[in-house]
Design brief:
The complex is a heterodimer.
Chain A (H helix, E strand, L loop, with lengths): L2 H20 L2 H12 L3 H15 L8 H5 L17 H6 L4 E2 L2 E9 L3 E10 L2 E10 L5 H16 L9 E6 L5 E6 L4 E2 H7 L4 H20 L12 E3 L5 E3 L4 H10 L16 H5 L5 H17 L11 H10 L13 H9 L5 H8 L2 H9 L11 H13 L10 H5 L11 H8 L11 H26 L11 H16 L3 H18 L2 H14 L7 H18 L2 H29 L3 H30 L5 H16 L5 H17 L3 H19 L7 H13 L3 H18 L5 H16 L6 H10 L9 H17 L3 H17 L5 H17 L3 H17 L5 H17 L3 H18 L5 H16 L3 H18 L7 H14 L2 H19 L4 H17 L4 H17 L4 H9 L3
Antiparallel strand pairs in A: 1-2, 2-3, 3-4, 4-6, 5-6, 7-8, 8-9
Helix pairs in contact in A: 1-2, 1-3, 8-11, 8-16, 11-15, 15-16, 19-21, 20-21, 21-22, 21-23, 22-23, 23-24, 23-25, 24-25, 25-26, 26-27, 27-28, 27-29, 28-29, 29-30, 29-31, 30-31, 31-32, 31-33, 32-33, 33-34, 33-35, 34-35, 35-36, 36-37, 37-38, 37-39, 38-39, 39-40, 39-41, 40-41, 41-42, 41-43, 42-43, 43-44, ...
Chain B lengths: L1 H14 L5 H27 L27 H14 L1 H12 L4 H8 L3 H21 L1
Helix pairs in contact in B: 1-2, 2-4, 3-4, 3-6, 4-5, 4-6, 5-6
The chains are: A mainly alpha, B mainly alpha.
């Protein structure tokens, strides 16, 4: 059924489904029949929908698995508002703490303010009692609230409204008893008295001094605005609600009630909007806005009909206008405004165009470090101005004014960028310097993750989007970070890390390293930047492990381990402190978990690095530890466990413990299939590794089945350019090779290679490996030209990347020598084999497989050089090693026996040769793959028969060999030609006077000469028909 | 997934900002879609592997790069199946994006889509059934 028709059916089915669920059960059947009619497809589809509907829980019901939260049920479009006036008034007469509520003074966004009284030692104290509507749950919250309140109550300054008392009611509402100030708001005061510009500046100075005092006590207001500032009848300013914002935000974090975090967006600083921690410079900005408004009558970023969203964008992106420019243009309005400042419009303009303008704009600089470093500095400059002295503020730089403050990528996922642009998490000071660090970390982490994910759009497996290359984004991104975030080393460092990571993913290790080292430079090993530095180091170790850069990898590992200990120690002291406050523990708790998981990632990277060394054991051990740790951790995520197990199994494989690897992998696969059903994508890797392990155990039938099946699944679930396709195809080819089905392998290598068409930089190592495997297969097929071409191709790819790793280097050299050998360049090939053998033996843990293969090749070289005795001795010494390494019956052992037989034969030891070849033959049958013999074995039998003078046995064996070789390698391959020549030789011996027999043999020999003129067999066979 | 949790939190806070209804709806749609894309990209990235072990064989090593816990849900599959739904019933797919990826509850979703609450819930039920049916089929 084609797509369009299928879609139509689905559409109908959905409609019918919707109708059905509205009906009572008893009516459904009839409706179903009526609506679906005879359409089988439709019926089945609707039934499927109904079935799915009735199943209790599926992925879509479990957002928590994905997001860690459920959709908010109390999704509120507006802030918490106080209840209706009646509610508030109803409280009058009640007691709150030691105070009695007397009168309602006002109510607003967060609650209500009452006039309250307390009898204390004979006199009545009157306070302003602010009652907040919201929930405080639990005694821990109250204890925290208490602590904070005590800090705030220590603020004693004439211009700061005292906080006397506070608490939490039964129902969870917090309350504060504050100094009762009678006065007007800032704006009212200034307007009513037509305060001139100079007095306004002076008034702001007094306010700023109060803020400065509070800063010295390490308290930040966080919600400064004109309505929070009252001026009493003496003209003295009083700032209200100091630090209360901090208290309320703590509670809001418990998610008991929705609460906007930018309390008053109109007065928020850019860094507040972006979610950076609040600092002294933030209050400088806010004071700047207040001053601006006092002087010019409107706020610097005020837009007509602006949504808060737009306004926040403006704060981030739009330059504050000159004071003059903010004045109304309408002459009537302007005159009125000027009058409120006891001035004429011209006078007003003049007053606003001098130093005051400079001061205001220095306070309103977008970047905190461009502003006054502290409120004290702002105060100083105001004083200078009022004294008539020169001010510190200098005119803004042109370049700065010209550029935009925030430049962002213009890519499809721009909405997500917008989210970050207005992410606002307010932070406080006392209690929460840690929290600020944490939130900064969260934000940077999020930004980093986001950017990496953006880059993936352009990488392999891309979804539709702009056709930008990942490299282009990355290359551009790096320069921008320095430019835009030079003042925020931590964020810059984390972004460098993100980009470095992206390069790692793309396989461009050189660039990755550059970025990661830049990240390191930005993130010193202290305080807040400990953790991000740790992350960068882990990535560097990972990179080093892929480049076999052991010295640097070790260096970075050592530092990472030191940092890990320090971080753990920090987390310890955190945990003790956090034990007082379970809510915060939840908030921070995942950091502790996180460090252990990250630590394990470090261990896995270290393990890969250790693999480069001579012994497999340390890497293996590390992986085992990680695997077990993850298995043991309850609730550890399935994928992390699987990753660790896969890694461990692979390492076991590498170290030769194939049964162990196979066992673990089967377990992983079984577990996974239980969870997800058979044929699921998540075990592609595990199944792949299992196929490899089985191959190494010579259980080829099962290995082939698994590998082919895996490929089918991969084709179905992965995009075609996904590297995993190549890995799997390569494995299928390898398994075919092991069954000596050499002619079937090339198509799989081609499949593997095709995956990288157009994107060779994705995994150059793998691409080169596939070329190498093709070369090896070509050598098996005795196709020298193809082998040479593939080796070249592999070399070229490796040159562009970092070069082959240690193990592959050996393989490349060995195959090169093998190629030389088949071209008759015996001496140099032999020399190479000798050298490689020495190197292999010199290792701490020599790889028996490598050793044996090198020995085999060296023995072949001896045979080709006419040195059968040396060959025999070499092989005999190797035999015990082989028996230890491989369990009979095994292809490798059979091959070795065959070689020994050839050597014995060439040396004239016919009986010895016979014994050996018969042993080989028996093992071959024992393998149980169905065939009774292999062409290699038959060829040796033919030659032995010849040596014994048994021409008919020789002919029979040679014929069988030829048939087998033709099928296996094709009729042009050397072994097929050799078999044919032995056959013609035997026939000739049987019929020495037959001209056709002779002609046949001559032809056969000619073919030999064309293929391998130097081979002793050629010479021997040619001698028969020498004229 | 840390990123998601955070983007999501940010998203919730952001979504509370008042704006005119049309702008909000537009924004929420975009943002939900963005969430979905981010997740799918991240999931696809996790599948990718770096090079493997031995030469002729090449088995695979563990996860590369940034480590973050992977969701138990196969996001790639979900995305594929959701794309299927899109072809059949675009509004329902959008609903899923808003509710599942965006995390909005049904009243907010209904408002954004301009339908009644009842319709939104009914459409969700249908979409959910279809997606679950397709997922278990895979």
């Amino acid at each position: 059924m084609d797509d369009a028709a299928e879609n139509e059916t689905l559409q109908k089915a959905l409609s019918i489904f919707r109708e059905l669920v509205e009906l009572p059960e008893c009516e459904r059947v009839a409706w179903f029949e009526a609506r679906c009619g005879p359409d089988e497809e439709l019926r089945t589809t609707v039934e499927r929908l109904l079935a799915a509907d009735s199943r209790p829980a599926g992925p879509l019901d479990d957002r928590a698995a994905l997001f860690g939260t459920q959709p908010s049920d109390r999704f509120a479009h507006t802030e918490v508002v106080s209840g209706p006036r009646q509610d508030n008034e109803a409280r009058i007469g009640q007691h709150v703490g030691a105070y009695r509520l007397v009168r309602l003074l006002g109510h607003g966004g967060m609650g209500a303010v009452y006039l309250a009284e307390r009898n204390a030692g004979g006199f009545t104290q009157q306070v302003a009692l602010k009652l907040i509507r919201s929930g405080y749950e639990g005694s821990d919250a109250r204890r925290r609230f208490e602590r904070e309140r005590q800090i705030l109550s220590r603020l004693q300054h004439p211009a700061i409204a005292r906080l006397y008392d506070g608490g939490v009611l039964e129902d969870g509402s917090p309350w504060f008893a504050m100094e009762l100030i009678e006065g007007e708001t800032l704006s009212q005061w200034c307007t009513r008295r037509a305060l001139p510009v100079r007095e306004r500046a002076a008034l702001l100075l007094r306010i700023a001094e109060a803020v400065q005092y509070a800063h010295q006590q390490l308290v930040i207001h966080r919600d400064l605005k004109p309505t929070n500032i009252l001026i009493d009848k003496d003209g003295a300013p009083h700032v209200l609600d100091f630090g209360i914002a901090a208290l309320l935000d703590e509670q809001a974090d418990e998610a008991t009630s929705p609460h906007t975090f930018i309390h008053t967006p109109e007065y928020a600083a850019p860094e507040q909007i972006r979610g950076d921690p609040h600092s002294a410079a933030t209050d400088v900005f806010t004071l700047g806005i207040i001053l601006f408004e006092m002087l010019a009558g409107m706020r610097p970023f005020q837009l007509p009909n602006a949504t808060p969203f737009k306004m926040q964008r403006a704060v981030l992106e739009v330059e504050a206008p000159a004071l003059q420019a903010a004045l109304p243009t309408d002459p009537g309005v302007l005159t009125g405004l000027a009058a409120q400042r006891s001035a004429t419009p011209q006078q007003l303009r003049r007053q606003l165009s001098g130093d005051l303008d400079l001061i205001v704009h220095k306070a309103l600089e977008k970047r905190p470090q461009d502003r006054y470093p502290s409120v004290a500095a702002l105060c100083e400059d105001l004083r200078r101005h009022l004294d008539g002295r020169a001010v510190q503020a200098v005119p803004p730089r042109f370049a700065y004014r010209a550029g935009k403050f925030l430049r962002r990528h213009r890519i499809p996922v721009i909405a997500a960028v917008a989210i970050f642009a207005v992410l606002s998490v307010a932070t406080g000071v006392s209690l929460a310097q840690a929290r600020a660090a944490r939130q900064q970390a969260n934000r940077a982490e999020a930004v980093k993750q986001f950017i990496v994910s953006l880059f993936q759009e352009a990488g392999p497996g891309a979804i539709e989007g702009e056709p930008v290359t990942a490299k282009a984004i990355l290359d551009g991104g790096s320069a921008r970070i320095e430019e835009e975030l030079g003042d925020q080393p931590r964020t810059a460092g984390e972004l460098f890390n993100a980009i470095g990571n992206a390069y790692l993913y793309l396989g461009d290790y050189a660039k990755a390293r550059k970025e990661l080292e830049a990240a390191l430079a930005k993130l010193p090993a202290e305080g807040e930047t400990l953790r991000p530095r740790f992350d960068v180091l882990i990535d560097l170790v990972d990179m080093a492990s892929h480049q076999d850069d052991v010295p640097n990898g070790t260096r970075w590992t050592n530092e990472a381990l030191l940092l890990r200990d320090r971080i753990r120690a920090n987390e310890q002291s955190w945990r003790r402190w956090l034990s007082v406050t379970p809510t915060l523990r939840n908030y921070f708790g995942d950091a502790a978990q996180d460090i252990e998981s990250r630590s394990e990632d470090l261990d896995l990277a270290r393990a890969r690095l250790l693999d480069q060394g001579e012994s497999k054991k340390p890497g293996l051990e590390l992986r085992r530890v990680v695997a077990e740790a993850r298995l043991a951790r309850k609730g550890e995520h399935e994928t992390r466990v699987r990753t660790a197990l896969n890694d461990y199994a692979l390492a076991l494989s590498d170290s030769g413990d194939f049964p162990g690897a196979a066992r673990i992998l089967r377990q992983v696969i079984a577990d996974n299939e239980r969870r997800h059903g058979p044929g699921h994508a998540s075990v592609l890797k595990s199944r792949h590794n299992l196929a490899i392990a089985l191959r190494n155990l010579d259980q080829l039938n099962e290995a082939e089945v698994i590998a082919r099946e895996n490929f089918a699944i991969a084709t179905r679930v992965l995009p075609p350019q996904h590297p995993l396709n190549a890995y799997i195809a390569n494995t299928v080819a390898g398994i075919l090779r092991q069954q000596q089905r050499y002619r079937e392998a090339p198509e799989w290598y081609v499949r593997a290679r095709r995956v990288f068409d157009g994107q060779p930089e994705v995994d150059p190592s793998m691409l080169a490996t596939v070329h190498l495997n093709e070369a090896i297969n070509a050598l098996s097929l005795m196709d020298n030209a193809a082998a040479a071409a593939s080796l070249d191709a592999a070399d070229r790819v490796w040159r562009k990347a970092s070069g082959p790793d240690y193990q592959r280097r050996i393989e490349v050299e060995m195959r090169g020598a093998q190629l030389a050998l088949s071209r008759g360049d015996i001496e140099s090939a032999a020399a190479t084999f000798d050298r490689l053998l020495v190197e292999e033996r010199a290792k701490l843990e020599p790889d028996a497989r490598n050793e044996l293969r090198l020995i085999g090749f060296r023995a072949e070289s001896h045979l080709l050089a006419g040195q059968p005795r040396e060959a025999g001795q070499l092989l005999e010494r190797a035999w015990p090693i082989a028996q230890q390494k491989y369990e009979a019956p095994h292809l490798e052992l059979i091959a070795l026996l065959r070689l020994r037989a050839e050597a014995a034969l060439a040396d004239g030891d016919i009986d010895g040769a016979t014994a050996l070849i018969e042993l080989a033959g028996r093992q071959f049958i024992d393998r149980g793959i169905g065939a009774t013999s292999s062409p290699d074995i038959e060829l040796v039998r033919a030659r032995i028969a010849w040596a014994r003078g048994d021409a008919s046995a020789c002919a029979a064996a040679a014929q069988a060999a030829q048939a087998g070789f033709r099928k296996q390698l094709g009729e042009r391959a050397w072994p097929a030609l050799a078999a044919r020549a032995w056959m013609t030789a035997a026939v000739l011996r049987q019929t020495p006077h037959s001209a056709s027999a002779r002609a046949d043999h001559v032809r056969a020999v000619a073919a030999l000469r064309a293929s391998r003129p130097f081979d002793p067999q050629t010479l021997e066979l040619a001698a028969l028909t020498r004229p | 997934m840390q990123t998601t949790g955070l983007v999501h939190e940010a998203f919730l806070k952001l979504a509370k900002v008042d704006g005119d209804a049309l702008e909000r709806a537009h924004f929420l749609n975009l943002a939900s879609r963005a969430m979905r894309q981010i997740l799918v990209d991240a999931a696809k990235r996790k599948h990718a592997e770096k090079r493997g072990g031995g030469f002729a064989i090449t088995a695979l090593t563990g996860e590369p790069g940034i480590a973050a816990p992977e969701p138990a849900i196969d996001v790639v599959e979900l995305d594929r199946v959701l794309a299927r739904l899109e072809a059949v019933d675009a509004r329902s797919a959008q609903l899923v994006e808003l509710h599942f990826f965006g995390g909005l509850d049904f009243s907010a979703v209904a408002e954004t889509l301009g339908v009644s609450l009842r319709t939104a819930m009914r459409d969700w039920r249908a979409a959910r059934a279809l997606l679950h049916a397709e997922l278990s089929r895979a």
